[in-house]
Design brief:
The structure is a single chain. The protein has 240 residues and is of the alpha/beta class. The chain has a single domain, classed as Rossmann fold (3-Layer(aba) Sandwich), CATH 3.40.50. It is built from seven helices and seven strands. Strands 1-3-2-4-5-6-7 form a seven-stranded mixed sheet, sandwiched between helices. Strand 6, helix 6 and strand 7 form a beta-alpha-beta unit. Helix 1 packs across helix 7 and helix 4 runs antiparallel to helix 5. The longest helix is centred in the middle third of the chain and has 13 residues. The protein is globular and about 50 Å long. The two termini are 30 Å apart.
């Protein structure tokens, strides 16, 4: 529907479009986390739920992930912030809602702090304390030689570790988000602790931001918690 989407480096960004109600100018853009892609079960479930509710969706893979162009070792939060801007460039005339999961949530916070095209923001198990995450998950892995979570298709790059370390934490960005903002996080998330969402929420405008905590839910909103995540997002967007 939107033709080929490329980032600033000329790398193609793979995407899928889910139509909504006829004439709708709202669109939800869904971005994934580190080692993910647009076809993760939670992403497809959310896109289907939104589409059924009449809200169009574009879910995509950041460069270096899934079927998008580029190299995985170049995928950092800072680069993906620019990828997201390239997606927005093809959505002229649409009212954009961005929903990002995990590292994709961090990307959304960084982008929303400087890009007025995001009119509503959704953070799903969003990463906030980036340096702490990098050290907790990959501190024992040698960059440029080892792999993320022992997955050979996901080499750990020094560029990735440097970027997360320099960002350190996004908690201070909470006060820079000036649009309605929904955060959804599972209490049993052992990848990005729910405290990340609580910490950035504490810095946000209480009139704009809301956190939904899902008891017993893990990082990827696996069953039986998928429906709760989807209904939280759909209900918020529909004003329930």
């Amino acid at each position: 529907m939107f033709g080929q989407i490329k980032n600033q480096q000329g790398e193609s960004l793979d995407y899928a479009f889910h139509p909504g109600a006829s004439g709708s100018k709202d669109i939800v853009v869904i971005g994934h986390g580190v080692t993910g892609n647009k076809d993760r079960p939670w992403s497809i479930a959310l896109a289907d739920g939104l589409s059924k509710a009449g809200i169009p969706v574009l879910r995509f893979s950041f460069a270096g992930n899934g079927s998008s162009g580029g190299r995985f070792v170049d995928a950092t939060i800072s680069k993906e912030v620019e990828d997201l801007g390239s997606v927005f460039d093809v959505l002229q005339g649409w009212k954009i809602v961005y929903a990002g999961h995990s590292m994709g949530g961090a990307v959304g916070v960084c982008r929303a702090a400087k890009d007025s095209r995001i009119q509503r923001l959704i953070s799903l198990a969003g990463m906030v304390h980036t340096k702490a995450f990098a050290q907790r998950e990959f501190g024992q892995v040698e960059p440029d030689k080892g792999f993320m979570w022992d997955e050979p298709s996901c080499p750990l790059s020094s560029a990735y570790m440097k970027d997360l370390s320099e960002l350190n934490t996004l908690a201070g960005f909470g006060g820079k988000i000036r649009v309605p903002w929904l955060l959804v996080h599972g209490t049993e998330d052992d990848v990005v602790p729910i405290q990340d969402s609580r910490d950035i929420l504490a810095m946000a405008d209480a009139k704009l931001a809301r956190l939904v905590e899902l008891p017993g839910c893990n990082h990827v909103f696996a069953e039986p918690h998928t429906a709760a995540m989807v209904s939280s997002v759909v209900g918020w967007l529909k004003g329930a």
